[in-house]
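Lecture notes, continued. The same structure-token format from the folding unit now serves as the input rather than the output. Read the line below as a description of shape only.
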């Protein structure tokens, strides 16, 4: 994985993690209170429903705690210690002995005595999650190959399976909390994997091919890089200067450091401005001054406005915005550190901590309203698209003031059958349709349940005083109707082709009356 891509993934994971952690923290507190009240109720009046509610609430709290652990792994006080990767992998594989009857494990370990300085439990959990995913990705029988080797500075761990694979378009989102390719997954497992590897100064690369399998390649340094610290910057400062004045006079330096922090977004600034008329640099200054001045109401409106603007333009990648937020946060704290360093004679420690609480709280408010606005607009857009698709899937074409046609094509499932029922009956009532031609020549197959549903719709059409003309029934569908014993009532007309129905109703077709 090249450095740019790695930095992008780290920044994206950190950004999403911070947002998720804020939400998880806010949700967990009221849930804990609810848990306490449930326990009191259970003591006063025990009931099975209370047991179920307590169990489900415990599951929710555990999920939120897992999210907090993934989003903020640095909160974990586990110390670093020397571990042997091969030994830990062997102990983890013992947990999957019930799967080895169907999945063959092939191990290729080299330099097995090499020791890594790491947080043991976090690394073990990450390897467990990867192996668990590999076993689950193999629906029947298959193979998992685990390799380990070392260079002078790096430990390599490769876990490869012959499972169902991951679609190429979804690879970029792996490691993001709540993103998963499983029907019943939460995405927390891989989020923990990526978070742990990055925290240890490592990299993780994924290669996958649908129906062929997936390979995870992990690189971990034998010696951890030095911890990143705030930067001491050469900035302008004069005595008794306020923080707002300090940021204003160093506006150009702020932009330079912001662009350096988000260096691979430089080329996207003009593109974002062209597509969405969004000036990221100007908006960054606006956001920073709102944070410093603690303008909650203004920042709520700004967050809503920004969220809607980004939601309107599908070409604007949300990951860009997340990374930009992260860069702003980092650079702002570098500037706050330098302001405090230059102004330390006049500042008390409690002032700095108060400012830290104010800024982080206000930024969380902005992010919350940004994503609420973004999601709300996307939901409305999605609903509009679904409604449009529903209308297109059941086109009701008027041929005269009292005659219409519904051409049915493609696959009809339960959802579409319900849409047909709703649209057809509504339109008959609204447009006073007396004759409705239902052309089924474009429908190749219907299962028994859908045939019965359509038969009920036809009954409903006759109840509304409309005569249905059914055309184009294929032999396969007719055979299903015979097996089900379905018979149309006397009001329903069946005709072989659409042309025959139109001719019978007096329309000109190919020059005939």
């Amino acid at each position: 994985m090249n450095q740019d891509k790695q930095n992008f993934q780290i920044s994206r994971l950190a950004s999403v993690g911070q947002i998720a952690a804020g939400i998880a923290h806010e949700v967990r507190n009221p849930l804990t209170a609810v848990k306490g009240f449930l326990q009191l109720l259970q003591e006063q009046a025990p009931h099975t429903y209370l047991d179920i509610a307590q169990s489900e609430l415990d599951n929710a709290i555990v999920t939120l705690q897992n999210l907090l652990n993934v989003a903020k792994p640095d909160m974990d006080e586990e110390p670093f210690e020397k571990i042997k990767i091969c030994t830990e992998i062997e102990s983890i594989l013992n947990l999957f002995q019930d799967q080895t009857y169907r999945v063959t494990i092939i191990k290729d370990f080299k330099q097995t005595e090499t020791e890594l300085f790491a947080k043991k439990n976090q690394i073990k959990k990450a390897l467990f999650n990867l192996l668990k995913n590999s076993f689950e990705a193999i629906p029947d029988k298959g193979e998992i190959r685990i390799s380990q080797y070392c260079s002078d500075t790096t430990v390599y761990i490769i876990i490869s399976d012959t499972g169902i694979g991951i679609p190429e378009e979804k690879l970029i989102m792996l490691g993001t909390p709540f993103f998963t390719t499983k029907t019943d997954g939460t995405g927390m497992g891989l989020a923990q994997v990526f978070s742990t590897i990055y925290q240890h100064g490592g990299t993780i690369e994924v290669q996958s091919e649908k129906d062929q399998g997936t390979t995870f390649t992990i690189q971990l340094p034998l010696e951890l890089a030095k911890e990143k610290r705030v930067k001491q910057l050469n900035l302008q400062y004069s005595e008794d200067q306020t923080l707002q004045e300090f940021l204003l006079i160093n506006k150009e330096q702020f932009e330079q450091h912001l662009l350096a922090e988000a260096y691979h977004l430089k080329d996207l600034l003009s593109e974002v401005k062209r597509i969405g008329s969004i000036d990221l640099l100007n908006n960054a200054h606006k956001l920073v001054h709102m944070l410093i001045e603690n303008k909650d109401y203004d920042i709520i409106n700004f967050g809503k406005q920004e969220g809607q603007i980004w939601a309107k333009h599908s070409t604007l990648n949300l990951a860009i915005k997340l990374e930009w937020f992260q860069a702003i946060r980092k650079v702002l704290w570098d500037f706050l550190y330098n302001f405090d360093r230059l102004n330390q004679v006049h500042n008390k420690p409690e002032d700095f901590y108060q400012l830290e609480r104010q800024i982080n709280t206000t930024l969380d408010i902005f992010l919350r309203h940004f994503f609420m606005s973004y999601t709300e607009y996307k939901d409305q857009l999605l609903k509009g698209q679904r409604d449009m698709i529903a209308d297109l899937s059941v086109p009701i074409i008027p041929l005269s003031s009292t005659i219409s046609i519904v051409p049915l094509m493609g696959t009809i499932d339960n959802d579409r059958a319900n849409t047909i029922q709703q649209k057809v009956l509504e339109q008959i009532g609204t447009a006073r349709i007396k004759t409705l031609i239902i052309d089924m020549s474009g429908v190749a197959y219907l299962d028994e349940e859908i045939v019965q549903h359509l038969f009920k719709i036809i009954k409903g059409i006759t109840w509304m005083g409309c005569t249905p003309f059914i055309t184009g029934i294929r032999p396969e569908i007719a055979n299903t109707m015979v097996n089900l014993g379905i018979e149309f009532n006397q009001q329903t007309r069946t005709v072989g082709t659409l042309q025959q129905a139109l001719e019978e109703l007096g329309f000109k077709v190919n020059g005939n009356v």
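Point for the exam: The first strand starts at residue 81 and ends at 84.
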